[in-house]
Amino acid sequence: MGEHYSPEEIEEGLSGRLDVERSKEIVRHLLQGCPQCQASAQQRRYALVTAAGSPLPPDLSAACNTVLDRAEDFARRAAILPREERPRFRRALSLLETGGGVVALAHEGDLEVEGLGVYEALLARSWALRYENPREMCHLAKVAVEVAHRLDSGKYAAWRRADHAARAWGELANAFRVADRFRNAEQAFVQAYEFFHRGSQDRRLLMRLLDLEASLLGARRELGRALERLTTLSSMYRAAGEIHLAGRTLIT
Prior knowledge:
Shape: globular
Radius of gyration: 20 Å
Strand content: under 5%
Helix content: over 70%
Order of helices and strands: HHHHHHHHHHHH
Number of helices: 12
Structural class: mainly alpha
């Protein structure tokens, strides 16, 4: 990640005005989490909006938002991993993004489907497929659950393994919801909360589970129960001082 790109070149790459290979290089670089180039992209976007006095053209705005959102998600996921797991996360996610699925990890990347780096890559790719391939979204989340249950007890305390299992079950439940498999989603949430109570009972993890469960309840038209979850979630955001998220939760 030694090379950096100018704000102008980032703009041209995202808008498709460079050749295909150069554009791909820029997108890959941003997705790998380079903070300098991500900042340049954000600054360039702001400068263009300011100069034009109006929003960016839809295609450029969408390209910027997509890449920056994915880059931010990549950086956030990598940051929570132990340092030794980050290369495996990057490698696994890169392989999964080729479309080869879990098979690509072993056949093309010589990676065992084990450990937190692969676990995080599976969840990241599962989430990324929520609009285009619900079936594969479910499959990758299922494998993430399996990986969570196989985490090394010599490296990770029981409460930490339970946290990872709770999170994976919650994401699997959400994948089932996206695939309209509501009964499976409900059963997966039972598992998610069971492991949550065995773990650290982390506030952020609970907030994620409540948010996902509210989506399921809304999809099932159980609006009263959905509102209960969202009200609890909003209160938790307020307690954390995140007032804007508290309001957005109830609007949603």
